[in-house]
Design a protein that fits this description.
This protein has about 675 residues and is an alpha+beta fold. The protein is built from 21 helices and 23 strands. Helix 10 packs antiparallel against helix 20, helix 13 packs parallel to helix 15 and helix 14 packs across helix 19.
Length: about 675
């Protein structure tokens, strides 16, 4: 009998179908039991309620132990969507003070997995956040009417002072981007996270660890008590407290000095790199970032044309002006272009080479390095840069500027310093490639001569300028500036504990220090202490119209103790918009006043003895009405209760009037 091959093939077909069905069941079982936990959540939600216990966030103190940021109670409304039945929407909205449209939007956002990646019908979901005790009390009375809704106790931040908003930062509800970037899976919708300042930089220390309380429920979803008497509960771990290096009294003073001005103040303790004061003006009240109105207030500040949210101390980049001359002098000394006593460069009201002129004020000429720093001579540093970029030992200006840039970078310019606050800008120190692109490879020292006096393409932050002062005070090294002094039961990052050395030899700093001392005191020490000041006024065109300008007055102050390490370094930036170029000098004068009043306050706190006398720095401008008013004592006589008694003298030098004010306590 012939064999039927059709029946033989049918057997394999049926076997294949059966095998496919078995594989489908196995894959589905694997998916249900291994890759998804929906059914587990469903089963668990019938018997258990995992109630998150949120930790208290760490408190923040200033360097003197004054409480700056603490916690206050707030309440969140959560719900388990699976348990919500026969909801009286109107009564719920009236109890919570919201409209039906707001209710529908909240529910829609909750179910949107793009906005809420962790959404599940069987777990707690955030409905409303940051209710006050009064608002929560009204809802608590009617809670029995709304099955599936729960009250979750939380904490929000409160501030002791209306100051230091940029440094302290704030917290807000975690965003989708934050949750996606969270590799640990710590955050869920409704959690709070640091948004700015210290709150953001030290989020992992401040937030603590969540706890879980496991509650038993009956078949009707009613809470029956704690599972196994709390044996499997996990308590929350409070966040760690932070002690900042900020002096809140100094911070408040700085903010008052810059009221109605645009600028910043940075004060650093050079020996440790601790930031004593970090002011950015205009600023804002940190209390605006508390509660449910945070989003509305943030939008209002964001639209403000004066940009109060911008932390100018870290994010503002400005030409450093004459404060940069100290770094230039150190570079020239290290490269052997000059020495402390020679050569002496001429200055006939400026640097002149062919048709090129860089103006300067009237003073003695020729002069070596120390008097050049003391008088802030533009011509001297122009000649120095011209000689360096033209020196044959480098082979080309490109090689020379590479060496020059390396020295500047080692002194803290051109790159982020690494301060423990978010948003720091790097500034700009141009390199050979920058100028080769701009001038197609054809340039020399004269082409870029403006960078010799801290203008042109040079940009720096107030923090970098203050750090330059710390480097000079330490004679060649600095510790990365930081605002956190101590973390509870933890150690600061090593970058904030170990100094960084510059490429400049220690011996070269003495000439620069002597020049800065001469700028303020004429070489005469006061009570064994010396105040070194250098200033810079940079004119920057901010629009196509030459008549609209922005003026930057920079002051860099060093307070030397025993001539070795300074007790405090201050960088002040004041900018003013003006329609007349002659008004630019007022910006410079404001910087002078701010830094001197700041030093006067610091005398009682950060030095062994108080200055008996403070001399105004040499101010090369025709007339500074602000300084004159200050010295005559008409407006600032009792400024901030310091009781200044002032005299002034105007010394005419040609067409310029150099103003020296001698202030006595």
């Amino acid at each position: 009998m012939a064999k039927d091959y059709r029946l033989e093939k049918r057997k394999f077909v049926i076997g294949g179908i059966a095998l496919t069905i078995v594989l489908i069941y196995l894959i589905r079982l694997f998916v249900l039991q291994i890759t998804t936990d929906d059914y587990k959540k469903n089963a668990d939600s019938n018997a258990f309620l995992n109630k998150i216990q949120y930790p208290s966030r760490g408190a923040i103190y200033d360097r003197n132990g004054k409480l700056l940021v603490f916690n206050q109670p707030a309440y969140d409304i959560t719900l388990v969507p699976k348990e919500v039945e026969n909801l009286d929407t109107l009564d719920l909205c009236e109890s919570l003070g919201i409209t039906r449209a707001q209710f529908l939007k909240i529910m829609s956002d909750m179910r949107d997995r793009r906005r809420n990646p962790g959404y599940s019908r069987y777990t707690n979901q955030l409905f409303m956040s940051q209710l006050s005790a009064e608002e929560c009390g009204v809802f608590q009375e009617k809670l029995f009417k709304f099955p599936g809704f729960y009250i979750q106790r939380r904490t929000i931040r409160q501030y002791s002072y209306n100051a230091a908003a940029h440094a302290l930062g704030d917290i807000g509800e975690v965003s989708v981007k934050d949750m996606e970037a969270d590799e640990e899976g710590y955050y869920i919708r409704g959690d709070y996270v640091g948004k700015l300042g210290v709150e953001r930089s030290y989020e992992k220390y401040l937030r603590g660890e969540k706890g879980v309380e496991i509650l038993l429920r009956d078949a009707h979803g009613r809470i029956q008590g704690r599972y196994m008497d709390g044996e499997y509960d996990r308590p929350s771990i409070p966040g760690k407290n932070l002690t900042l290096s900020l002096d809140i009294d100094l911070q408040i003073l700085g903010e008052r000095l810059l009221k109605n001005k645009i600028g910043s103040i940075v004060a650093i303790e050079p020996e440790t790199g601790e930031i004593l004061c970090l002011v950015s003006s205009p600023n804002y009240d940190p209390h605006l970032m508390i509660g449910r109105q945070r989003g509305k207030n943030h939008l209002m500040l964001q639209r403000d044309k004066q940009k109060p949210l911008l932390n100018r101390a870290l994010m503002g980049v400005y030409p450093p002006g004459s404060t940069f001359k100290t770094a230039q002098g150190l570079t020239f000394l290290q490269e052997g272009i000059i020495t402390g006593q020679s050569p002496s460069f001429p200055c006939s009201r400026g640097f002149h080479y062919g048709r090129l002129t860089v103006g300067c004020h009237a003073h003695g000429s020729p002069l070596p390095l120390i008097p050049a720093i003391a008088t802030s001579c533009n011509s001297y540093f122009c000649w120095g840069l011209f000689r360096m970029f033209g020196d044959r030992k480098y082979g080309s200006p490109q090689n020379a500027i590479t060496v020059w840039k390396d020295h500047m970078v080692s002194q803290g310019f051109g790159y982020k310093l690494g301060v423990d606050l978010p948003g720091e800008k790097r500034g700009l120190i141009p390199n050979a490639q920058f100028y080769d692109k701009a001038y197609r490879g054809h340039w020399n020292g004269l082409t870029v001569i403006s960078i010799s006096i801290g203008q042109g393409e040079i940009l720096s932050t107030p923090l970098q300028i203050a750090n330059l002062g710390a480097t000079i005070a330490n004679r060649g090294h600095f510790t990365t500036p930081h605002i956190v002094k101590e973390i509870q039961d933890a150690q600061l990052d090593s970058i904030y504990r170990h100094p960084r050395n510059t490429t400049i030899e220690r011996r070269h700093y003495e000439s620069v220090v002597e020049g800065m001392r001469a700028a303020a005191t004429g070489g005469i020490a006061v009570s064994g202490r010396c105040l070194g000041l250098d200033t810079g006024a940079a004119l920057v065109i901010r629009s196509t119209s030459v008549s609209v300008v922005s003026i930057i007055g920079c002051c860099l102050g060093l307070w030397f103790c025993g001539g070795i390490i300074s007790a405090i370094v201050v960088s002040v930036i004041v900018t003013l918009a003006s329609h007349r170029c002659v008004q630019r000098y007022i910006g410079h004068g404001n910087g002078c006043i701010v830094i001197l009043q700041f030093f006067r306050f610091c005398g009682n706190r950060y030095a062994v003895t108080v200055f008996n006398r403070i001399l105004y720095l040499e101010s090369h401008f025709k007339k500074c009405s602000v300084c004159i008013q200050f010295c005559r004592g008409c407006k600032y006589k009792h400024c901030f209760s310091f009781g200044f008694i002032a005299t002034d003298r105007i010394v005419d030098v040609g067409q310029n009037a150099i103003h020296h004010g001698a202030c006595f306590r």
